[in-house]
Amino acid sequence: MADITAPHSSDTLEEATLAGGCFWCLEAIFNQLQGVIEAESGYSNGQHPAPTYEAVCTGDTGHAEVVRVRFDPRVVSFQDLLEVFFASHDPTTLNRQGNDIGTQYRSGIYTHNVQQADTARQFMAELERRQVFGAPLVTEVAPVHNYHPAEAYHQRYAAHNPHQGYCAYVVAPKVAHFRARFQDRLKPD
Fold first, then answer.
1. What's the distance, Cα to Cα, between the start and end of the chain in Å?
2. CA–CA separation, 8 vs 70, rounded Å?
3. DSSP states along 65-106
4. In angstroms, rounded to a whole number, what is the distance separating the alpha carbons of residues 87 and 76?
5. Secondary structure (3-state) at 60
6. Which tens digits make up the pLDDT trace of 120-169?
7. In 38, 103, 125, 186, which residue has its Cα 20 to 30 A from 78's Cα atom?
């Protein structure tokens, strides 16, 4: 990874949209990664024109809970993001992460351009070739569409609610695992 002190402007930033279960977990992880300017919780790749949390939770909107990651590719590459993404959820369980069950919790990489799609497919093929997970990947790769930011109270939810049950027992262990595995890639405290 490159120098984290390099100045950035909006014209040098890129976006990635990733689904790997509850967005609180991925948002908490990616906001701690060097080169990430912001990870925003949201809903993507469904058909409802104005999804809400309540509607998405029914599974009827087709949306996945996602994080939209704005990042500086001079500091962290899209492939680096994929490495963290695949280390932060189980990409072998269809429409499920732990006790979170439903299509809104699916594993997905929603690409912003052809290069991201190619990189994602190559990265996944290598994981499959090496049998990293011991089971086939079910992560979908598709162009991002119909993205909507989640409601304001979902943004940085785990940081604002560390003692809430789900945050304490699900989010916190995932963040701790990420911090231990990628300690050389963490933003300075």
1. 18
2. 11
3. EEEEEEE-TTTS-HHHHHHHHHHSS-TTSTTEETTEESGGG-
4. 16
5. coil
6. 999 999 999 999 999 999 999 999 999 999 999 999 999 999 999 999 99
7. 103
